[in-house]
Specification:
β7 (170-172) and β8 (177-180) form a beta hairpin. With 295 residues, the protein is an alpha+beta fold. α1 packs antiparallel against α7, α5 (189-203) crosses α6 and α6 packs across α7. The protein has 2 domains: 31-133, no CATH class; 149-285, no CATH class. Helix content is 39%, strand content 12%. Residues 5-121 form the N-terminal domain. This is Antirestriction protein ArdC. InterPro entries: Antirestriction_ArdC (IPR017113), ArdC_N (IPR013610), MPTase-PolyVal (IPR041459).
Length: 295
């Protein structure tokens, strides 16, 4: 079994490699034949992946051009009557767990966390899979609609106070509101809504909500981590709500900050992804009729 240290490092190396060439690996733009209902990676059971696994599978999907988003192990493929094609390479995902050392079996507080890496394959890498695993192609609209009601309702249901005007997008902790540039200043609804969901991600971190540290200044490690959490949360939410995720402005500056943090701490991307997952789940739980999901 790959050691926990090696697994953390392999994940971080993958993300850093993408950032160094100027690519945000969690950006999942629509393709011409995008399967809109399968943007969040799913297991063979239909359950969605979570946290860092979402990002790792998005990276693989972009690198190899997969449009399907169902992934499974080699053995699972065989169980469904499929066969991974010869020469195909799998993608690393992880499973979290704990174990108790033998000399502390009676002490639950001595449970030690572990991170186990294993390999999965996209169904496009597998032959003879049942048709039910493949999504129907949905043609994208030629003329994008600037007002997306699903996102507008989602944000309204969170209770966040949002006002439009000026030239800056930010969450203001002192008065607990979100300030957005006037809608006419955005190039597209994609840019507008990915920015809005990013700021709602920051809003979730207030002390009386998820209680994250929002006090860091630009250039500091704390600031970079919080920006990364909000960026990843926005990518998760955009995918869930069916909106392409557009990179934020000041890309070069943000990439430099994130690279510095990731190279200094190989656990940072995994921690940020877990916090971003918590943000997405917190905001989703605020929606009317929201039900508790399963991991």
């Amino acid at each position: 079994m790959t050691s926990i240290k090696d697994t953390y490092q392999r994940i971080t190396d993958t993300i850093v490699e993408q950032l160094e060439v100027g690519t945000k690996p969690w950006i999942r733009p629509w393709r011409g034949n995008a399967r809109r209902n399968s943007i969040i990676p799913r297991r063979a059971t239909g359950e969605t992946y979570r946290g860092i696994n979402v990002i790792m599978l998005w990276v693989a999907g972009q690198m190899f051009g997969y449009e399907e988003n169902t992934w499974m192990t080699y053995r699972q493929a065989q169980d469904f009557g499929g066969q991974v094609r010869k020469g195909e390479k799998g993608t690393l995902v992880v499973k979290y767990g704990t174990f108790t050392p033998k000399d502390h079996d009676d002490d639950e507080d001595r449970a030690v966390p572990y991170l186990k890496g294993y390999t999965v394959f996209n169904i496009e890498q597998i032959e003879n899979m049942p048709d039910r695993f493949f999504s129907p192609v949905e043609e994208l609209q030629g003329n994008p609609v600037p007002h997306i009601e699903t996102v507008e309702s989602f944000v309204q249901n969170t209770g966040a106070s949002v006002s439009y005007g000026g030239t800056k997008a930010c969450y203001r902790p002192s008065i607990d509101d979100i300030l957005m540039p006037d809608r006419t200043r955005f190039d597209s609804e994609v840019h507008l809504y990915s920015t809005l969901l990013h700021e709602v991600g920051h809003w979730s971190g207030a002390k009386h909500r998820l209680d994250r540290d929002l006090a860091g200044r630009f250039g500091s490690e704390g600031y970079a981590v919080e920006e990364l959490v909000a960026e990843l949360a926005a990518s998760f939410l955009c995918a869930d709500l069916g909106v392409a995720h557009d990179p934020r402005d000041n890309t070069a500056a943000y990439l430099a900050n994130w690279l510095a943090v990731l190279k200094n701490d190989k656990r940072a991307i995994i921690t940020a992804a877990a916090k971003a997952q918590a943000v997405a789940e917190y905001l989703t739980a605020l929606q009317p009729g929201a039900a508790q999901g399963t991991a």
